[in-house]
Every structure is written in structure tokens, then in C-alpha cells.
Amino acid sequence: MQMPIESLNLQMLNVGFAKHDKDWNWQNVSSPFTRIYLVTEGEAKLHLENPCPTSPEEGGLSTSTIVDLRPGYLYIVPAYTAHSYECRGVFGHFYLHVYEGFKKETDVMERYDLPTEVMAQEGDKWLMEEMCRRHPEAQLPESDPQSYDNTTKFTDYVRRYNEMPLHQKMQLRGAILMLFSRFMEKAVPRMWTKDERMVKVLAHVHQHIYEDIDIDDLADVACVTKPYLIRWFKKELGVTPLQYINQKKMEKAQLLLVTEDVAVKEVAYTLGFNDHSYFIRLFKKMTSRTPQEYRNLYN
Fold first, then answer.
1. Where does the pLDDT of residue 145 fall: very low under 50, low under 70, confident under 90, or very high at 90 and above?
2. If 0-12 CB within 10 Å is exposed, 13-18 middle and 19+ buried, where does residue 158 land?
3. CATH number, position 183
4. Once rounded to an integer, what is the mean pLDDT over residues 13-21?
5. Is the N end or the C end of the chain the one with fewer CB atoms within 10 Å?
């Protein structure tokens, strides 16, 4: 099923140009926003961690894909994708950071497998240059992903976009969609499963991600028993229904923590957790940081 263009609620956080000389070697980066790069000169490498079907404690092992970054090409790193950079010489690139606004449906990154690399088309560099010219305040003060800004809160980036005049948002939206379309042109719809019942189960999870999702309700959606659903779900997706639900809730939590100026307890309640202490333990288990420690990375 094709995703309607109205649901592509992509919003800009940062845009700019950076030139490096052997100093773009950040390791183990993972953020709740998507990165798009347009390389202009030099070469570098992007190490992408491929997610394993099971968690490390269950014996799952992650693998890495190495992508050579070349001039004249666009690259995309989806949100929540663990990755590292390797730069051994001069390297110049435009960067664009975007995130999908909150909505109760599956994000575009989860519905399609996007190519990591596509050839830039005529006018793409101009689009980047225009965004940089019109929004110099969106340039990152430094390139270290762990300390993008030690004076301005990440939430200020979001507030800055939200407070823009409508015509500026329209201009940005058009430019972002144009660049994003380069990847969508070669995207392949992701087949979670061929079973229509499982499709309904996954849709239910995403539509109710801000609620307390009961596994019994998922079994009812699929018209199967709860034990059968758990075994079937694990076979289809490699994780249990609860693990999948928690993974998606923690991804939403990461975005909420860095884009909304609300208490951790409020984030927990927003995602359907009545016990915020449990939410904190779960978040740390899945991200290796407490919610506040995670928020401090961007604030």
C-alpha cells in the first residue's frame, strides 16, 4: 500500500555545510532523527550497524555495512540507526537533519527500505545551498554528534522551526521532500509479513503506540489465541509482541525526550506507561542510558 504524501511530516532540525580534514571519525552514533548528506569533495566511510533480529541478551549479533561516501552522491542514515564515520583526508559535505512529526501511524522509514546511496541530481546542490543561505542559524556549531551544541537546547531547534512563518516552512518542506524523493524513487516497500492478519496486528500497534497495548487485544485483532500469537509473532519478526511494542515505544520516547520540553514522567505517561519507574528501567535497558542521561546528550 502506498503511503499518502500528507503523512510525510518531515521537519528540519539542522542544515549546513562542513569541511573536514581527518577529523570526522565519530563512533557509535545513534539519534532520533534522519541524516541526509550530499558529498562535494573528498572521500570518507560510513559504517552502518545492521540490526539483529534478536536482542544481544538473546544471542543476536549485529553486523556492519561499510559505505564509501563519494562526491556527487546523496546518502541517508535513518533515525535510530547505529553508525560510525571514518575520514582519512579532506572531506566536504552538506548535511540535513530531519525528523518525522508525531502521528499515530507507521513512519515512512518503517514502511520502505531506502537505498543508502543515490546519485545526486541537477539542482540538489542548489537546494542545499539555498537552505543554508536562508537558514544560517540552523548550522551546527560543531560536528561532534555527542555535543552538537552545548549552549542551545535541542528543543530550541524544534521551537525555531515551529515558529517559522508558514511560507518558510513551505519552502523547507518542498526542498526536503525533493531531496527525500531521490531515495524514495528507488525505495522498496518493506514486507514485514505476507499474512494479512499480521499486517493488521502491526497496524494496531502503531495506531495505539501512545496507549497501553494489551497482548490479548492483539490476539483478538488476529483472531488467534494469545500463546499462538506470541509464537507466530516471534517466528515472523524475530521478537515477541511485547519486545516489538517496547522497541517502538522507546523510539518514540527518544524523540519526545529531545524535542519536547516535558518531564520524564510525562513522557512515560504519554506513551501509556502508568509506572514511570518501569519506563526508566526499560529505557535504560534498551538504550544503555536513563531518559535524563539521553536527554542530556542533546541539551
1. low
2. buried
3. 2.60.120.10
4. 94
5. N
- Residue 232 and residue 149 share a domain: no
Spatial contact of 273 and 279, defined as CB atoms under 8 Å apart: yes
Average pLDDT over residues 267-273: 94
pLDDT confidence of residue 54: 43
- Measured CA to CA, the distance from residue 200 to residue 210 in angstroms comes to 17
Q: 49 near 81, Cβ under 8 Å?
A: yes
Which among 66-75, 142-151, 183-192, 254-263 has the top mean pLDDT?
66-75
Enter the pTM of the model: 0.83
- Selection from 42, 31, 10, 15 nearest residue 169 by Cα: 10
Determine the Cα angle at 166 with ends 163 and 168, to 5°: 85
Burial label, 69 (beta-carbon count in 10 A; 0-12, 13-18, 19+): buried
Q: Show which of 161, 189, 217 is a domain's final residue.
A: 189
> Of 136, 165, 189, which residue sits at a domain end?
189
Query: Distance (Å, rounded) from C-alpha 48 to C-alpha 81?
Result: 7
C-alpha separations of 47 from 29, 50, 87, 92 in Å: 10, 9, 11, 18
Say yes or no: 50 and 120 in one domain.
yes
Q: Domain span at residue 262?
A: 196-296
Helix or strand or coil: residue 118? strand
Strand order through the sheet with 34-42: 10-21, 90-100, 34-42, 73-77, 117-119
Q: What is the mean pLDDT of residues 231-247?
A: 92
Name which of 293, 32, 257, 251 is nearest 155 in CA terms.
257
Q: Are residues 266 and 234 in the same domain?
A: yes
Residues 41 and 185 in one domain: yes
Tally of domains in the chain: 2
As a whole-number percent, the residues of the chain with pLDDT over 90 amount to: 60
- Residue 285 sits in the same domain as residue 214: yes
